[in-house]
Amino acid sequence: MATSDKIRVAQIAEQLLHKKWRFGTAESCTGGMIAGICTSLPGSSRWFEGGIVSYSNAMKENLLNVKRETLEEFGAVSEQCVAEMARGTQFSLNCEVTLSVSGIAGPEGGSAQKPVGTVCFGWALKDQLFQETKQFSGNREAIREQAATYALAKLASLLQHHG
């Protein structure tokens, strides 16, 4: 884990504690990596509620209330899906702030429309919702690490500007 990730998580923790908000994650391609980074910080139980690794579409539907129609029309790697994942995590974990991530880490699974390295992110801050799609490069592990780092960096920025 990069030192910058630890610093960023400490900043996130400070903002969450100040607002008395709880935080949770829903991860697909990062497989719990973001939750792992968060819980590496001592005292994380004061602000981190938990993480759900929702790798399969069934998990996204059953635990996070992602609509089957969303998965069929847009796919699991879509801004529509991660938005529903972020909202579903707020409900499932009963927390004010969530982030969700779903992507194609490779080396297989990509397409012309969604090549390997495509990662979609969702962030929910109380009633506000933000989504974004990024393209990362490298091998599977590099893509996963870049996705985790980006998700946390964007969360820190959103908390600062919208929280």
Please tell me about this protein's structure.
The chain has 163 residues and is α/β, with parallel strands linked by helices. The chain has a single domain, classed as Maf protein (Alpha-Beta Complex), CATH 3.90.950. Helix content is 47%, strand content 21%. The chain contains 6 helices and 5 strands. Strands 2-1-3-4-5 form a 5-stranded mixed β-sheet, with helices on both faces. Helix 1 packs parallel to helix 6.
Supply the CATH superfamily name. CinA-like
Number of domains: 1
Summing up helix and strand content along with how strands pair, one would put the structural category as: alpha/beta
One letter per element, helices H and strands E, the order comes to HEHEHHHEEEH
Radius of gyration from the CA trace?
Answer: 15 Å
Which percent band covers the strand fraction? 15-25%
Report the total helices.
6
Strand order of the main beta sheet, please?
2-1-3-4-5
Q: According to CATH, what is the class?
A: Alpha Beta
